[in-house]
Design brief:
The complex is a heterodimer of chains A (about 100) and B (about 200). By secondary structure, chain A is mainly alpha-helical. Chain A has 3 helices and no strands. In chain A, α1 runs antiparallel to α2 and α2 packs antiparallel against α3. Classes of the chains: A mainly alpha (about 100), B mainly alpha (about 200).
Chain lengths: ~100, ~200
């Protein structure tokens, strides 16, 4: 299984990262912001695994991607808990309403 | 074989990019979560093409099985508030968002193409056993044992932190129990007929 060039994977990963980054910057729903972060983490994982396939002497890239997945799971759990706590305070999950420190 | 690989790659690309766009663009958070699931499954397909079987399995287990389900739980817990009505925007800002996306996407594509100079690198055949659970697990438990243990500790901290943050401020149970217990002996005889018997009393 080696008929697909490395660059194709890199292009897909770059596009997915852009989708996640633009979504993170433009959306105002806190849940969608967290999902955009997950998209960006997935894009970096794809890059890591693709480069590891390019240099298959060891599994450094795959192991790094493994740890990224672990950190992403922890981040999703804590992030969603923060969303719930924020909702309890403001009764909304718009990121524009997270302005308690203003004034 | 080659056509099959390209077919799988094209399907995965469609899932990844379509799912990503759906995640970011849909107004309903439930649709966003399902689109995120589609995108994650596409990434798992790409991992399979890149001979990372273990990571593909982990991807499906952790992301599709845990993270997306957690998202769905929170969306349903929030109910109608998960979709704030103010998230609907005027047409002009939506066009601005699409233009921003197109601009940055073409920029990134140009950057990657310039870095690779338009050439394609054919991936050499991987060594036997590359990316299997045995090979990855062996490295995970020998050369990178310290990060593995640290990530375990991180997950434990994240569990405790998530519970503590999501639970919010609760009344201190030790204080709540301590006060009635002190006045129970005097108050109990008068109150006895009106209040419901505690399980302990019901037994005796």
């Amino acid at each position: 299984m080696n008929s697909i060039p490395l660059e194709y994977f890199l292009l897909v990963a770059a596009l997915l990262f852009v989708i996640g980054a633009v979504g993170f910057l433009l959306r105002r729903n806190l849940l969608v912001l967290l999902m955009s972060i997950e998209l960006m983490l997935n894009a970096t994982n794809l890059t890591l695994v693709a480069y590891n396939r390019f240099r298959p002497e060891n599994h450094a890239g795959q192991i790094f991607a493994f740890f990224v997945i672990a950190v992403a799971a922890a981040e999703a759990a804590v992030g969603l808990a923060i969303v719930l706590a924020f909702f309890r305070v403001r009764r909304t999950i718009r990121s524009d309403d997270a302005d308690l420190l203003r004034n | 074989m080659k056509a099959l690989d390209f077919g799988i790659f094209a399907l995965s690309t469609l899932l990844v990019l379509g799912g990503g766009l759906g995640t970011v663009a849909s107004k309903n958070p439930i649709r966003s979560a399902i689109a995120l699931l589609v995108s994650i499954l596409g990434i798992a397909g790409m991992f399979l093409l890149l001979a990372a079987e273990f990571l593909a399995a982990i991807q499906v287990l952790v992301y599709a099985g845990a993270v997306v389900v957690l998202f769905l739980f929170v969306i349903m817990l929030l109910g109608p508030a998960a979709q704030s009505p103010a998230d609907a925007r005027s047409a002009i800002s939506r066009y601005l968002g699409a233009a921003t996306f197109l601009l940055s996407a073409t920029g990134v594509l140009a950057l990657v193409l310039r870095a690779t100079k338009g050439a394609t690198t054919t991936l050499a055949t991987q060594p036997a056993g590359f990316g299997t659970i045995e090979a990855v697990g062996k490295e995970l438990f020998t050369s990178s044992i310290a990060p593995l243990e640290f990530s375990g500790a991180l997950l434990l901290v994240a569990i405790v932190g998530a519970i503590a943050v999501a639970r919010g401020k609760q009344p201190d149970p030790t204080l709540a129990v301590a006060t009635p217990k002190g006045e129970e002996p005097e108050a109990a005889p008068e109150k006895a007929p009106s209040r419901r018997p505690t399980p302990k009393e019901a037994h005796s």
